[in-house]
What we know:
This protein is of the alpha+beta class. The protein contains 14 helices and 41 strands. An 8-stranded mixed beta sheet has the order 34-36-39-38-37-40-41-35, covered by helices on one side. The protein has a 7-stranded antiparallel beta sheet with strand order 1-2-3-7-6-5-4.
Amino acid sequence: MFDLKGKITIIFLIIAFLLAIVFFFVPLLGNALEDFEMSRLNLAALREKEVQASEKKSNPRAKGEDAAWYAVDKETENLNGIFLKGRSVPAEIHRLAQKSKEKAAKQFLEDYGGYFGIDDPEKDLKLVKKSKDKQGITHLRYNQEYEGVPVFGGQMIVHLKKDLSSVSANAGLAPDVSLDVDPRISKEKAEKEASEKWEEKFDGENPKILDSKLVVFSEELTKNDPEGKDSLVWLVEIFESQPRSHEYYFVDAKSGKIIFQITGIKEINRQVFDCSNGDWPCYLDDLVGGYTYGRSEGQPARGANPAQGGTDVDDSYDMAGSMHNYLQNEFSRNGGNNQGGIGDGYYTDVANTDVYDYLDGIWGGCPNAFFDGFSVNFCKGLVYDDVFGHEYGHAIVDFSVSGGLTYSYESGALHEAYADIFGETLENERTGSSDWLAGADVNISGFTGPLRSIRDPGSLGDPARFYDSNFYCGSSDYGGVHLNSPVVSHAAYLLTEGGSFNGCSVSGIGRDKMERIFYRALTSYFTSSTDFNAAYSALNLACGDLYGTGSGECVSVRQALQAAEINQGGRCSGEARATPLCGDTTPPQVSEVAEDQTYDPGVAIAFDEGTAVLNGVPVSSGTVVNEPGDYTLVVTDAAGNSTTIHFTIRGSSGDGDETGQITTDTPALEYRGKGRATKRINIVFHGRNLDIKKRSWVSGRLGGKKVKIMKAENLGEDFLVSFQLKYKKMPPGTYSFVANYKLKTGKRSWEKGTLTAENILTISN
């Protein structure tokens, strides 16, 4: 029997269900798509800003306190790093992360892979490792592939914070790979070629082949050669214990020739000399009276010295190895001189790490320890982790600064401070902790530790800050290189551990970050004459490179250095001491614009102190804002206190038609096959009366790719920008154009602005 009433009931339920989908799920989907579109456009805006290749720039979003940075490969103009924070992270990734980090990373790669030069992540990338660190960040490492063949050295890593408050990625990828992946020679022939090369080098026979596989070898990626070519190769790995060797041979899979070779052994050549014979030359692997004095690389432990007692030789050997490994693992540095050892290439080979122990009988300066430019040296009973690390640290400093860091006065005190920091680093590496006391374990006649307290310099009568009454202003001790070094090392301690000092409350950032910041400052910004004030700038710049100038890490750097007064004139300068800036927690005051307010064009922002960025671009107090849009203003004072204001400019700017009326003579381009693909494109911004005199006053980017400006002309009520576009390698898609311009407002003053033409050009093939 036909039940009409039941059918009506079923239809009603279906309609109700569909309405629920429309009114509940669709808005959610719309919000998700909107969030994603905002994030995508944010990245596009970032790409279109002028930046130095390989430099990270802080770029606040139009709304919210979250920010993003990116880094560009100067050769390929592809991204090699990106960081998304907070609302920059697409909603879709947030949802997928609840299911699995792999799915979230996959979505990220689909959304952003193109900016790295990866058009098809599913095809071009293979997940090879997933790990989670102590901070709860998951790292997913992908290897690059081409037509199913691994690209040697090509990798991309996606980093997902546990709560998805940030997502980042970095990559080293071979760009534009294009080759035939069918080998002409067999794996067996490649192995034979590699074996013959090994036998020739090591004078051996029939080496053991660990692995052979087909890979793509990119000279641009491996040799940093932008003009290099890509090759299909057999990668043959050979290992032998006698003679000890671990070699990789790259055999061209087309010609059969070896085109590249690297070693898998990163050796340290230690030579620990035992000077207990009381005369030169000191012993090295010399058997005397049943005991072998001294120890060279690869030799067994010697045990206690029968003449002097103690195991200084074995301890030195182990400590040198630990220091070498630390530098390799943390900074990819090959020894103190970055050439394998601490040798200077004149007195001893650069690959050597020479140590001289038991100097008491042949050197009148005992008890002591020192670095002489090519070796580290110790009197009896002074081989401890922090003492050895200190002397080795001098080698790192010497070989890191061009011309060496002058060993006198403030630059010399910096030298000693860094050596103390490296001493504590080695102690931590070998024991899992450090006491921040230099030479605390030394206990010999005439030399009892600790020598300096890094955590509390005043407890041993040393200065903890630049205006400390203990700060030495004389010429002894080479201008106080040892006496005054605790000022800087104490700042490193505060930065690491945190604490209150000199009216400042410092938030500790941990040992690893402190070491990275101090190392980068030393290797990238120090000169031979760097003093305390210059070190203040160098350390802040280094932190900005690593973590962003507005980061919590860099706020802590400023706090620690200001607490130690390193940014002031100092006790010996004659300048009056000022209360440390970090003691003032009052944020900068901003006027004319307020949080979440909307204004007409022509607003002049103002602030009472500090430096400011507006949508990531540095601005000064009094800057006039005309362009409609959403803005984030961040003002930061010298103490690291900041004020953030979000505001909106509405309406039109300029004379004539509304902003947004834009025309072009080339709305679409199509590329077919081989040939030259270059086009001159004209874009007219209607209603923009800009008094621009020269085309050099304008720079432009299309989809993040820098283009050559051919013409920039005021047409009265309109403004014309003409640029030359090379689109042969540009992937299909719709692109936006951004022109950055400057207008001369005075003899030495300029007003800067931006013109944006959204989705102005479509490229297809």
